[in-house]
Amino acid sequence: MIDLYTAPTPNGWKASVTLEELGLPYEVHAIDLMKNTQKEDWFLKLNPNGRIPVIADRDNGDFTVFESGAIMIYLAEKTGQLLPTDEKGRSRVIQWLMFQMGGIGPMMGQANVFYRYFPEKIQPAIDRYQGEVGRLFGVLDGHLADNEYLAGDYSIADIANWCWVRTWKWSGVDIAPHEHLQRWVNTIRERPAAQKGIKVPYDIKLLKEGDDSEEARKFADEARKMVEMGKSKE
C-alpha cells in the first residue's frame, strides 16, 4: 500500500496517474494548498521543501519519496513497468522526463503566473513564457511526428509531459498548430488510468478548460495571493 499526499495539480497528477497505470493500491491524503497545509510541521517531515506530491511506501518501511519525477521513477522501478531496464531505453525515458521537469513544467508554471495570477498584466513576461511554452510544444510535436510515444513504448515520460500539456488552455497557449501533439494528448486521454488519475484527490476541470468562470477566477485569485506572499503552493 502506498500513501499519496497530493492535490489536484499537474505534478500531483503525475503521481496518481502513475499509480493508476501500475495498478498499485494507494490511499489518498488530500492536501489543502489554499490553507498552506503543505507548510505544516508534520508535512515538512515528509518533504522538507513543503511541496506535493509525496508518497510513503508502507511495504518498504514507510519509505518516503518527494519530487514528482523521483516518485515516478521509484514506482516504475518498484514494479518493473513504464521504465525500460536496458541502458538506452531507460536513458530515453529519463531524458524526456527531465524535459518535462526542466522545461514544460517550469515554463507552463511561469506562463500561468503571469497570464493568470498576476493582477498586473506584464506583457513582455507573458509573451516570454507563452512563447517558450509554444517552442517546447513544437519540440514535442516534431518528435511525435515520427513516434507514437516519447520514448518507445508508453512510459512515465509520457505521463509526466501529458499531465502538464493537457492544461494548455490555462497557460493561454494553443496546441492547434501542433497536430502530432494533439494526437498524443488525445490518445493518452482515452486511457482509463489517465482518466481516473486526473480526478485524484478530486476532479478539477478548470485547469484544463482555462475558462473565465467564477470558479476559475476564484482559483486564480487564491493562487495570486500566494504568489505575492512568496508562498508557492506547489
From TrEMBL:
SUPFAM superfamilies hit by this protein: GST C-terminal domain-like, Thioredoxin-like
Q: Which Pfam families match?
A: GST_C (PF00043), GST_N (PF02798)
Q: Which residues form a coiled coil?
A: none
Which residue windows are transmembrane per the record? Answer: none
GST C-terminal domain ranges (all copies)? 86-219
Q: Which residues form the GST N-terminal domain?
A: 1-83
Tell me the InterPro entries matching this sequence. Glutathione-S-Trfase_C-like (IPR010987), Glutathione-S-Trfase_C_sf (IPR036282), Glutathione_S-Trfase (IPR040079), Glutathione_S-Trfase_N (IPR004045), GST_C (IPR004046), Thioredoxin-like_sf (IPR036249)
The family database entries (CDD domains) matched by this protein are listed as:
GST_N_Ure2p_like (cd03048)
Instruction: Give the family per the record.
Output: Belongs to the GST superfamily.
**PANTHER family registered for this protein in UniProt:** DISULFIDE-BOND OXIDOREDUCTASE YGHU (PTHR44051:SF22), GLUTATHIONE S-TRANSFERASE-RELATED (PTHR44051)
Q: What is this protein called?
A: Glutathione S-transferase
What organism does the UniProt record list as the source? Aquisalinus luteolus
